[in-house]
Design a protein that fits this description.
Length: 177
């Protein structure tokens, strides 16, 4: 399993060495240490620019997996309304500070749905996310607006940018506000 994890991490293009080392520790459960807030923000911003906002389906999916991996949490929250779920989705992809249980809930739902869809994402990126979701074992949450996350994910793995995909899934009421 460790060789497989190392292979998956090494298959991630342009990954900073400190992030690769951190991921190897987290995924192998060799060292369990709390990530400090500065390092978390630094990785989060790098992920946002290089992977989560990327139009390449493999990089986008890999970004989701890494973002789940760096989170210090393994629980989610329920979303009371569509606005909150879309706000959490947008902030998470942009690398902006967001209530972490919301980010995990959105990313988990996004990852599970995206991996079920036919896409051009690489086998390695899909396997990386699958491996992390199995290790993380996040319990399901109750979400009133999963269809928006699903539509967003489908557009992203088709190669749409964050702005385009997000704009297309916003309900008209939210767009007008």
């Amino acid at each position: 399993m460790t060789d497989n994890i190392t292979y998956l991490i090494n298959a991630i293009p342009n990954l900073a060495p400190e992030i690769a080392d951190f991921l190897a520790c987290r995924l192998s459960w060799g060292v369990t240490y709390q990530i400090n807030q500065h390092f978390f923000r630094s990785i989060n911003l790098q992920l946002s620019k290089e992977l989560l906002e990327n139009t390449d389906p493999s990089k986008f999916l890999t970004g989701i997996g890494i973002r789940l991996a760096i989170s210090p949490l393994a629980f989610t929250v329920s979303f009371p309304d569509t606005y909150r779920i879309l706000e959490a989705l947008h902030k998470t992809i942009r690398g902006v500070d967001v209530y972490e249980p919301c980010a995990i809930a959105v990313l988990r739902e996004l990852a599970l749905h995206v991996m079920e869809q036919p896409s051009q994402a690489s086998k390695e990126s899909t396997e990386f996310v699958k491996t992390w979701l199995e290790k993380l074992d996040i319990p399901p949450h109750i979400c009133m607006a999963t269809q928006y996350i699903w539509k967003y994910g489908e557009r992203r793995i088709s190669g749409a940018s964050h702005e385009v995909a997000f704009g297309l899934v916003l309900p008209r009421k939210v767009q007008a506000d």
